[in-house]
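Need BadM/Rrf2 family transcriptional regulator's 3D structure for a figure. Predict it.
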Amino acid sequence: MQISARGDYAVRAALSLATAYPSLLSTQAIAAEQDMPRKFLEAVLADLRRAGIVRAQRGAEGGYTLARPPREVTVGAVLRAVEGPLAGVRGLRPEETRYEGSAENLPGLWVAVRAAVRRVVDEVSLAEIVSGRLPAHVRKLTAMPDAWEPR
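Structure prediction for BadM/Rrf2 family transcriptional regulator:
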């Protein structure tokens, strides 16, 4: 799975908003805290607003806040809002792939990959990341001997 800059910025902005929840934060404050380009952040926040993850308030005291408490917003929801589906194979959803011959069973693997990604990003809330209390099954993955090693 590849997380684009857009996805990374979206999650980081959502974490800033989770920390401030229910207060409003300006794009300037989020951009400064997370060291990201303000214009790009504005586009990301617009995607999150359209997806119902954040609310915007206009005016001198305006800004952004999460539309729901941080414990109710998953990383998966944030990523889907800006990236679309989490797992794709040549532009298809894993269950839509079809192969012949020796690759005929490959769709099952692609579906399993998507399920594994979902098991992490759809089961970790913004509140859990901010607090540093990730679910046990996620902590277990990060504790595997080769988890932090590149391949």
